[in-house]
């Protein structure tokens, strides 16, 4: 096992009174990709938020370790240094993280600048190309409001990857994409992460995407990690009833009526 | 079209054209689309976003007006762009189940409004009709006093199916109705559609970008791209021996995300 | 730490309670004015001219010897009454027109919205002065003069809300369910646009009061001797150095009332914005 980059130790967290995460135990190695699969409201997004240290989520007990350091309660400067460069994040709704009226180029330039990176148009268009966004130069001159949800989602992935984080956290990033585009984006994102040895922690309810990209899959239900294991094992020999049910409910090609 | 098909045909579209005039550029949303739907059949319409599949549904039920082309249901030609009239034969189920209900109303009020008085069964009152439809769609009566926001996504989508059936229409136009739902909820709603087809003879036009879902539900499938129908036929035949290159691409993408069989 | 949304909503609620209580008090005072006045607001007396506040005349008397306090009270009735009536009429006409335009669109929509555009091309007060001038003053004239531009604000707001609701699946489901346009407007659209419309109406009360008093001040609204704050100020301003109270108190009353209603409108608007984003 490679050294653990991110470690979540017996994490219990709540929104106000309501517990959303219960005793979560998870370690992610350098360059490893782990997928959190569960229904909406299961707590998979909350787990990402806990790692990011979002304000409204209260950690009741347990710790989050990054590179061996406890970052559970990291605030201010320490948190800012971690987010972006070390831990990248692509939210479910990218519209919220971009100014809708500013050109993408200016916004991505700003983000890179504030992390001390230089803007390289070649590099940017190359990443966009990989995410199935052709004519990158033209897209960079556009503003978020002019683009479809799916395009914005891919722009958000691109801008997160440009910061070359060591681990990328993604929340349902393919929900606005067609199957064809989703398949392509997922494939390219996987290759990009492998190339750069970027670890990936992605929350999704789409098992097919997890099947394609994950080294390991964690099944989350009602705030608990009910099953965690290698992708192959989870998909072909699930142990828990809930996992079995979930796998049965995924429609499959050619397994007709 | 063969004569035998005509008898069972509940909905038919002929040479439908539809263009949008936006920002002084004309987009051809539908290019000469024809289709038929037989009684108790599920016809899938597959394609990526922008293929015109949703526009087709909206045009068929009169929410949009076709430029040219004819739509027939119940043995008559429907007036173009008249959703009130088309509603006698068909109802639409929308992708966003929550937005399909007036946020300020309880389910009871929203459902009662859709009762077709002339079609309520002679013996049973309106309330019994609602209750029996709730039962058929897998819902319970206590949900009637809730507002849409207090239902789960799956419950809300079932409610909108129950509401559609209340009008007495026996054709459902489903626009990506499961894509906002969780995997398991999606499977239950898919099962509901199959049951409605088998037990009540409901005919369904099902728009989806998910070929796996289509392969599970549909008798026939129509592949659309850029407003035109690329191919149409028996679901198994189209998916196993696609004639167009594009269908092959769609299938390849779907296979890319296909799960291995559970041992 | 920043106050949580919950606390901010609580604060807005408190603001609404306080300002609506104040507004209610003002309205009640205006309604009960004839019972509350210590003196006949219209009785003049040569021996009572320009008396300083005190004794039987809490706000003093004006240059004709009329009780300023009584006139301010009765004036409230005129100003608040006319304002409410005007806002209500604009609300009804504007909302109805906006809903029809937003739902049915086409030629009617084009026509009404272009008219609204023309109205908005000039500052409201300029149009009002011109119209009131042509109509030759009087309360009805002043109301027409302000109303001719005011309904357009309601119409625009109602139109845009109607348009966005019309595009929602539940309205389309209702059309497919066989409901007529009139039914959908009354049962699905009106209930859902009422809250923003009423909020907008609240924010219009202050502006309208300024308009009514302003026109009266210019002699284009309420005709003397009828008590109205604007016309009172106008009548007495020549004596502002000898009898400042005759100008000061109606002015204060106007400022206070406008403040209360503006505050109420803002508080309701902020509250709605907060609870929507929750």
Describe this structure in words.
The complex is a heterotrimer of chains A (257), B (263) and C (278). Chain A has 257 residues and is of the alpha/beta class. Chain A has helices spanning 44-52, 76-82, 104-114, 121-130, 136-140, 149-162, 179-196, 207-213, 231-236, 241-249, and strands spanning 4-15, 18-29, 33-37, 57-66, 69-70, 87-90, 167-171, 199-204, 216-221, 224-230. In chain A, strands 6-7-8-3-9-10 form a six-stranded mixed beta sheet, with helices on both faces. In chain A, helix 4 (121-130) crosses helix 6. The longest helix of chain A has 18 residues, at 179-196. Chain A is globular and about 50 Å long. Chain B is of the alpha/beta class and 263 residues long. Chain B has two domains: 1-89 and 171-239, Rossmann fold (3-Layer(aba) Sandwich), CATH 3.40.50.300; 101-169, no CATH class. Chain B contains ten helices and ten strands. Chain B has helices spanning 3-8, 53-60, 83-86, 107-112, 126-136, 153-166, 183-200, 211-217, 235-240, 245-256; strands at 9-22, 25-38, 42-46, 68-73, 76-77, 90-93, 171-175, 203-208, 220-225, 228-234. Chain C is mainly α. Chain C has a single domain (5-39, 57-277), classed as MetI-like (MetI-like fold), CATH 1.10.3720. Chain C has helices at 5-31, 33-36, 68-104, 106-121, 124-135, 139-166, 169-176, 181-217, 229-236, 245-277. In chain C, helix 8 runs antiparallel to helix 10. Chain C is elongated. Chain C starts with a helix and ends with a helix. The model of chain C has no long low-confidence stretch (mean pLDDT 87). Chains in contact: A-B, B-C. The interface between A and B is large, with 39 and 37 residues.
How many helices of chain B does DSSP assign? 10
Share in β-strands of chain A: 25-35%
Adjacency order of strands in the biggest sheet of chain A: 6-7-8-3-9-10
How far is it from the N-terminal to the C-terminal residue of chain B, by CA?
44 Å
Greatest contact pair?
A-B, 39 and 37 residues
Taking strands numbered 1, 2, ... along the chain, how are they ordered across the largest sheet of chain B? Answer: 6-7-8-3-9-10
Shape summary of chain B: globular
- Quickly give the structural class of chain A: alpha/beta
The total strand number of chain B stands at 10
The proportion of residues in beta strands of chain B is 25-35%
């Amino acid at each position: 096992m490679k050294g653990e980059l991110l470690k979540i130790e017996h994490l219990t967290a709540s929104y106000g009174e309501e517990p959303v995460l219960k005793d979560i135990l998870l370690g992610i190695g350098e360059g490893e990709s782990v997928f959190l699969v569960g229904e909406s409201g299961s707590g998979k997004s909350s787990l990402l938020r806990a790692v990011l240290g979002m304000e409204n989520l209260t950690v009741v007990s347990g710790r989050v370790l990054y590179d061996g350091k406890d970052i559970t309660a990291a605030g201010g400067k320490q948190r800012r240094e971690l987010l972006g460069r070390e831990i990248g994040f692509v939210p479910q709704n990218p519209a919220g993280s971009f100014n809708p009226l500013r050109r993408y180029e200016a916004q991505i330039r700003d983000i890179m600048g504030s992390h001390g990176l230089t803007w390289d148009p070649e590099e940017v268009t190359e990443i966009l190309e990989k995410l199935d966004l052709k004519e990158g130069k033209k897209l960079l001159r556009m503003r978020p409001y002019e683009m479809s949800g799916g395009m914005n989602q891919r722009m958000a992935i691109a801008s997160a990857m440009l910061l070359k984080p060591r681990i990328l956290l993604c929340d349902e990033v393919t929900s606005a994409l067609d199957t064809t585009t989703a398949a392509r984006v997922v494939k390219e994102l996987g290759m990009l992460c492998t190339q750069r040895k970027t670890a990936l922690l992605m929350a999704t309810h789409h098992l097919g995407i997890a099947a394609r990209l994950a080294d390991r899959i964690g099944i989350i239900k009602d705030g608990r990690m009910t099953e965690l294991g290698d992708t192959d094992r989870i998909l072909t020999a699930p142990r828990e009833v809930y996992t079995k049910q979930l796998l049965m409910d995924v429609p499959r090609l050619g397994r007709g009526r | 079209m063969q004569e035998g098909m005509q008898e069972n045909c509940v909905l038919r579209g002929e040479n439908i054209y539809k263009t949008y005039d936006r920002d002084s550029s004309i987009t051809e949303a539908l290019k000469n689309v024809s289709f038929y739907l037989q009684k108790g059949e599920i016809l899938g319409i597959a394609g990526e976003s922008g293929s015109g599949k949703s526009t087709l549904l909206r045009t068929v039920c009169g929410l949009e007006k076709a430029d040219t082309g004819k739509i027939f249901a119940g043995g008559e030609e429907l007036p173009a762009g008249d959703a009130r009239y088309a509603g006698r034969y068909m109802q639409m189920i929308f992708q966003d189940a929550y937005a399909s209900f007036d946020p300020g109303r309880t389910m009871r009020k929203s459902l009662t409004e859709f009762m077709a008085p002339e079609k309520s069964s002679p013996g049973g009152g309106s309330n019994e009709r609602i209750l029996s439809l709730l039962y058929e769609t897998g819902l319970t009566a206590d949900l009637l006093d809730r507002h849409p926001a207090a239902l789960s996504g799956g419950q809300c989508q079932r409610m909108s199916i129950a509401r559609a059936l209340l009008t007495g229409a026996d054709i459902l136009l489903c626009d990506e109705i499961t894509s906002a739902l969780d995997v398991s909820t999606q499977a239950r709603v898919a099962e509901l559609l199959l049951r409605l087809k088998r037990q009540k003879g409901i005919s369904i036009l099902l728009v989806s970008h998910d070929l796996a879902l289509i392969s599970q539900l549909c008798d026939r499938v129509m592949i659309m791209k850029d407003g035109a129908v690329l191919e149409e036929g028996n679901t198994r035949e189209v998916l196993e021996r696609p004639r167009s290159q594009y269908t092959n691409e769609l299938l390849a993408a779907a296979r890319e995300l296909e799960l291995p069989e559970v041992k | 730490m920043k106050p949580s949304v919950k606390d901010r909503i609580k604060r807005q609620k408190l603001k609404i309670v306080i300002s609506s209580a104040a507004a209610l008090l003002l309205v009640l005072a205006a309604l009960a004015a004839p019972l509350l006045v210590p003196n006949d607001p219209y009785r003049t007396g040569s021996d009572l001219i320009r008396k300083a506040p005190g004794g039987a005349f809490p706000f003093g008397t004006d240059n004709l010897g009329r009780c300023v306090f009584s006139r301010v009270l009765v004036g409230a009735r005129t100003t608040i009454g006319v304002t409410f009536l005007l806002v209500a009429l604009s609300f009804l006409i504007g909302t109805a027109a906006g809903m029809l335009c937003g739902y049915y669109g086409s030629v009617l929509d084009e026509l009404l919205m272009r008219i609204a555009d023309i109205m908005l091309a000039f500052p409201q007060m300029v149009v009002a002065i011109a119209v009131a001038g042509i109509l030759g003053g009087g309360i009805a004239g002043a109301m027409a003069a302000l109303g001719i531009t005011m309904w357009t604000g309601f119409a625009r707001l109602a139109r845009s809300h109607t348009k966005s609701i019309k595009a929602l699946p539940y309205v389309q489901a209702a059309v497919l369910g066989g409901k007529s346009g009139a039914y959908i407007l009354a049962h699905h659209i009106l209930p859902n646009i009422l809250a923003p419309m009423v909020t907008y109406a609240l924010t219009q009360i202050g502006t309208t009061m300024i308009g009514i008093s302003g026109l009266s001040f210019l002699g284009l609204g309420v005709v003397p001797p009828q008590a109205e704050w604007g016309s009172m100020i106008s009548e007495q301003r020549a004596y502002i150095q000898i009898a400042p109270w005759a100008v000061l108190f109606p002015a204060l009353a106007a400022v206070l009332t406008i403040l209360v209603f503006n505050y109420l409108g803002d508080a309701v608007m902020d509250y709605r914005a907060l609870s929507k984003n929750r």
